[in-house]
Amino acid sequence: MIGRLNHVAVAVPDLETAAAAYRDALGARVSEPKAEPGHGVTVVFVDLPNSRIELLEPLGDDSPVADFLRRHPAGGMHHLCYQVNDILAARDRLKAKGIRVLGDGEPKTGAHGKPVLFLHPKDFSGTLIELEEA
């Protein structure tokens, strides 16, 4: 059902500093920041040959990423994102197996302009999972 790893998301307290570390220390290509108010974050993507790293900075104190950073002030891995061919079929199959879909269960538009859903971390060994329609 899942396809390739789309990205690993890392919550950071300072997006500019984190982006500079990837760009300047590791020599990576880093996108321009993009605000995603519907998800409560500003993101940049670090391009890798086989995937991406998504750096997340909260947009305000109500952001889920702000809550994450209160528990992990230095930042850290926030979620894994996998591609799926049909997000609604994936959602329905997962729900039938007892997997909890976060929010209202309806896909939102993600940072790549494609439908996304998040799955409860307690159903995946403590890891928040994002599904993105390919």
| Radius of gyration from CA coordinates | 15 Å
Give the N-terminus to C-terminus distance in angstroms.
12 Å
Order of helices and strands: EHEEEEHEHEEE
Q: What is the name of the CATH architecture?
A: Roll
Task: Quote the beta fraction.
Answer: 35-45%
Number of helices: 3
CATH topology group: 2,3-Dihydroxybiphenyl 1,2-Dioxygenase, domain 1
Overall CATH class: Alpha Beta
**How many discrete structural domains?**
1
**Amount of helix:** 10-25%
Q: What class, by secondary structure content? A: alpha+beta
Write up this protein:
With 134 residues, the chain is α+β, with helices and mostly antiparallel strands. The chain has one domain: 2,3-Dihydroxybiphenyl 1,2-Dioxygenase, domain 1 (Roll). Strands 1, 2, 3, 4, 5, 6, 7, 8 and 9 form a 9-stranded mixed sheet that branches. The chain has 3 helices and 9 strands, in the order E-H-E-E-E-E-H-E-H-E-E-E.
